[in-house]
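Name: Acetoin utilization protein AcuC
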Amino acid sequence: MLGYDWAGAHPMNPLRWELTWSLARGLGVLDQVELTAPRPATDDVLAGIHTRGYIEAVKAASADPASAAFRFVGGGSHGIGTDDNPAFAGMHESSALIAGGSVLAATAIARGEVDRAVNIAGGLHHAMADAAAGFCVYNDAALAVKALLDNGIERVAYVDVDVHHGDGVQAAFYDDPRVLTVSIHETPLALWPGTGWPTEVGRGAAAGTAVNIPVPAGTSDPLWHRAFHAVVPSVLRAFRPQVLVTQHGADSHAEDPLADVNLSVDGQLASYRALRTWAEEFADGRWLALGGGGYQLVRVVPRSWTHLLATVADRDIDPRVATPLQWRQQAKAARPNVLPPTAMTDGHPGGVDVPFWDGERHTAVDTAIDQVRRAVFPLHGLDPFDPRD
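Structure predicted for Acetoin utilization protein AcuC:
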């Protein structure tokens, strides 16, 4: 999976996965976790979400990156060959392997072999049916949801906490009432891809199954969680999913170079623990967690996703625990100009104090909450003005 490498100065670097795995091992998180090596998703599996022409274009780019932007079947680049999505050797193989991991995890959950699974290399939520987008080639998150449906699951809820809108997954299921997609992200007024408005609610019989919570730039832990808790548990309770799929982009952190939401690692951890609770409460404990964005490769992503792995495995880490010296040395060797963190907290080890929504508009976040609840809650039989709903 480390072969998914855009190379050069591209912000999405597989070092983040390597350092996460190393930190999780160093803290004992993986001691009792079953590790399973996936196979690459086949063309037939990929075609459950992507067009055959796009799959062939990715293969062509993978085999000949230098000319990838100019010689695809049917013309056009399918989003490949841009600054965001430059072609690289092995693009198809590594992307299909990541997709295969998420599909394998989803299939194991659907068949009752496991209750929980995690693929930190997954969460590539921007890829569209016919195009790469936002550093994402194959949309493993959408493919995982499709695998659940294909294996008999009747209702799947997908919750995306990446700082960018989960547009590719929403697009894949926008008119499918079996899939609830929830995305909390920085406002489209300020951040790519410019979608994810509260008025995007799904189409036809699926009206109400797309839920978008845009928060203003600069939103920090308490108000982000205010919005999260004012919307997500209510729609999950109403939808009654059989499996919860979650995407955990760590780019919502204050130190991330590509966005402007100001969460801490502690705030991100609080979201993982909330989602674990909701998986138990609303989905019979069946939970698939995926990675996603995150571009502070040393100081943020490894700690955030080590906490994610620990949360999924019920091996919670005290945030006050020190990062292992050997890991800090590895991180320093990889990025000499970045100071590795010495603890698993950003200074709030006791968690996040959530100021629950009371129905009033005190802040810009409250205005966003009000807009989301007005747009979506009536479609689920919920009262948008009652804080108890």
